[in-house]
Design goal:
Elements (H helix, E strand, L loop, with lengths): L7 E5 L6 H10 L5 E2 L2 E3 L13 E3 L2 H9 L3 E7 L2 E6 H9 L4 E4 L2 H10 L4 E6 L3 H10 L5 H15 L7 E4 L3 H16 L2 H16 L1
Parallel strand pairs: 1-7, 1-8, 2-7, 3-4, 8-9
Antiparallel strand pairs: 3-6, 5-6
Helix pairs in contact: 1-7, 5-6
Length: 206
């Protein structure tokens, strides 16, 4: 009997590329993927549940987790910490379930350092012009902020080399189809299967 571990899939890309929209469309379908629950120090909003939406912790607890390398990645936004708990991810993978993580590029690079066996998917805009339009159409940013976001996006696109796959987000459903194809392909990956067989054979020989 082969003890199949799950695979960690990381979806990332520049700000404004539509990561959240693609992730939501992916999970609106029937899927065996488990969405990675983040740790945060912010207070729960109405209807949010601990262990469902987030793991809500005090600041001191999360700082201790950072010190002890218990987060695969973390960042601080507006005075609150957000991060991906290593224990939750590893336990879910050990149970044979795939874990899906949607994060910013800097966070993905942290995960790559901490968990290089993950599968890294870069969500790419159809063009920089389209990315600019998406950022402007949010209607929430000033002209300076739009310019800064675009400069940051250009820098993030240059980090694409750190990823295993690139998916162009020209149309949400097409992007979701491609991600599902990547999930299936990774489960047929020769190196991954060979490793599982090797472990099964070794345990049979004992």
């Amino acid at each position: 009997m082969i003890d199949k571990k799950g695979i960690l899939f990381i979806l990332s890309g520049p700000s404004g590329v539509g990561k959240g929209t693609v992730r939501k469309a992916l999970f609106d379908q029937a899927t065996d993927l488990q969405y990675s629950i983040s740790v945060t120090t912010r207070k729960p909003r109405n209807g949010e549940k601990h262990g469902v939406d987030y793991f809500f912790h005090e600041k001191e607890e999360v700082e201790k987790m950072i010190e002890q390398n218990k987060l695969l990645e973390w960042a601080e936004y507006v005075g609150n910490y957000y991060g991906t708990p290593r224990e939750y991810v590893e336990e879910t993978l050990d149970s044979g379930k795939d874990v899906f993580l949607e994060i910013e590029v800097q966070g993905a690079l942290q995960v790559k350092d901490n968990f290089p066996e993950g599968v890294f998917i870069f969500l790419f805009p159809p063009s920089l012009e389209e990315l600019k339009n998406r950022i402007i159409n949010r209607g929430t940013e000033s002209e300076d902020l739009v310019r800064n976001r675009l400069l940051a996006a250009k820098e993030e696109i240059e980090m694409m080399e750190a990823y295993d796959y690139v998916v162009v987000n020209d149309e949400v459903n097409h992007a979701v189809e491609k991600i599902n194809s990547i999930v299936q392909a990774e489960h047929c990956n020769r190196e991954r299967i060979a490793e599982e067989y090797k472990k099964a054979l070794e345990s049979d020989m004992e």
